[in-house]
Design brief:
It is a single chain. The chain is of the alpha/beta class. The protein has 2 domains: 151 residues, Rossmann fold (3-Layer(aba) Sandwich); 208 residues, Dehydroquinate synthase-like - alpha domain (Dehydroquinate synthase-like, alpha domain, Up-down Bundle). Helix content is 42%, strand content 10%. The N and C termini lie far apart (58 Å). About 7% of the residues have low confidence. One of its GO terms (molecular function) is alcohol dehydrogenase (NAD+) activity. Keywords: NAD, Oxidoreductase.
């Protein structure tokens, strides 16, 4: 006989079943680590100036500061709650400054640094640090993409300054504590909580000026964060769930932006997807794809987002035969892209039913739909550079990558990416 219902709770509407409700096979016990981070994210289309002014005027210390009372930063300036307004250094390219003049509103920066270069050369970073010291800066406000935000991270890491980031692309740098810097043709990256922006302000209006081609490549760069998180060394159920939603949103938004760069709703969706994708990447860590792109960009000077867009399908084709769970998740998340490209099924041999598209087929369909770049040689990478690139990438490849990264396999992958050939899964059977 069932016990009476507890006071205040309605009686059960039906008797409990005599058989288990969950008929799925038992799952292994959960055993994982998920790392989160302390960061405030503000979304507000058309409100960047308002939100930035509010953040900088808040009492209780600067966003991202380690202390809220009478602390002295590395530039020697004491920040006290209720004291005068913080001294702001804006970091943005000249073009970005022209496009985003309204972001600052009534804020008068103590310094503006516009020598923004891709991949953060150490010389540029040192000039920015010196500018911050000379102007006795309290807070850094990068406006732009990964180059501006990456440069702000280089200053923050050395000077102990907080960052309020205002992204205008889909790079995702603002959502991670990963820094990068190039010295003597070698790109070094690392993780440091001090470089994580304490506050991020997303305003889709600021991304509307992004040219179509750069929107596409930057969006595929964002997609790469989510995909790489599916097999990165620290992947876990939480990061994979976030990555899947990010991939779905980006796959839906990017074709809309490609068709109409002024589509504000699609811009908002892409910004949100880029944030989620970078969040998953920040938790799971850097996978094979990013190791490859860091070498190609840092050593060979290739453009950041275009390199990601070109290499991504080849890394996916390389890894998915050894990562069936990631392949299934990715194929589902890319379903919107496959439908938009009318690639909803792949015909099977005569007399057999059609098959749904694989993750690789859906990703290639998305790239084709976006008219994304496909060949590294179009951006100055030479065939004779492949051997040197392989020698630099193999030692950096994650040991936990689903598939062993041998020099021979990596050479084939890079050659296909160099020439623009279709991505191939080494050892995979044709469909």
């Amino acid at each position: 006989m069932s016990p009476p219902p507890s006071p205040g709770w309605p009686a059960p509407r039906r008797p409990a079943p005599s058989h288990p409700v969950n008929t799925q096979p038992p799952q292994p016990p959960l055993d994982f680590e998920y790392r989160t981070q302390s960061q405030r994210v503000l979304f507000g289309t058309g409100r960047a100036a308002e939100l930035l002014a509010r953040v900088l005027a808040e009492p209780g210390g600067l966003p991202g500061s380690a202390s809220t009372s009478g602390s002295t930063n590395a530039s020697g300036r004491t920040s006290t709650p209720g004291s005068d307004a913080p001294r702001v250094m804006v970091i943005a390219s000249r073009r970005e400054l022209e496009r985003s003049t309204g972001v600052l509103g009534g804020i008068r920066p103590a310094a503006i640094f516009d020598d923004v270069v891709q991949h953060v050369p150490v010389e540029s970073a040192e000039r920015a640090r010196q500018a911050a010291r000379d102007a006795r800066i309290d807070v850094l406000v990068p406006i732009g993409g990964g180059s501006a935000i990456g440069l702000a991270k280089a200053v923050a890491r050395a000077e102990g300054l907080p960052i309020v980031a205002v992204p205008t692309t889909y790079s995702g740098s603002e959502a991670t504590a990963v820094w990068g810097q190039v010295e003597h043709g070698v790109k070094t990256t690392g993780f440091d909580p001090r470089v994580l922006p304490g506050t991020v302000i997303y305003d889709a209006e600021l991304s509307r000026a992004l040219p179509r081609d750069l929107s596409v490549s930057s969006g595929l760069n964002a997609l790469a964060h989510g995909i790489d998180a599916l097999w990165a060394p620290g992947k876990n159920p939480v990061s994979s769930t976030i990555a899947a939603e990010a991939i779905r949103m980006l796959a839906h938004a990017l074709p809309l932006i490609a068709d109409d760069p002024g589509d504000l709703a699609a811009r908002e969706e892409a910004l949100y997807g880029a944030y989620l994708s970078a969040s998953a990447f920040s938790s799971a860590g850097s996978g094979l794809h990013h190791k490859i792109c860091h070498v190609l960009g840092g050593t060979f000077g290739l453009p950041h987002s275009e390199t990601h867009a070109i290499v991504l399908p080849h890394v996916v084709a390389f890894n998915v035969p050894a990562a069936p769970e990631a392949e299934a998740l990715l194929a589902r998340a890319l379903g919107a892209a496959a439908a938009a490209a009318d690639l909803t099924e792949v015909p099977g041999p005569a007399g057999t039913p059609a098959e749904p598209p694989t993750a690789v087929e859906s990703l290639v369909a998305l790239s084709d739909r976006l008219h994304a770049p496909t060949a590294l040689r179009d951006f100055g990478f030479r065939e004779e550079d492949i051997t040197r690139a392989v020698a630099l990438i193999v030692p950096a490849a994650p040991p936990s990558n689903p598939r062993p990264v041998t020099p021979e396999a990596l050479t084939r992958l890079l050659h296909d990416a160099w020439s623009g050939d279709a991505p191939v899964s080494p050892g995979a059977l044709p469909r």
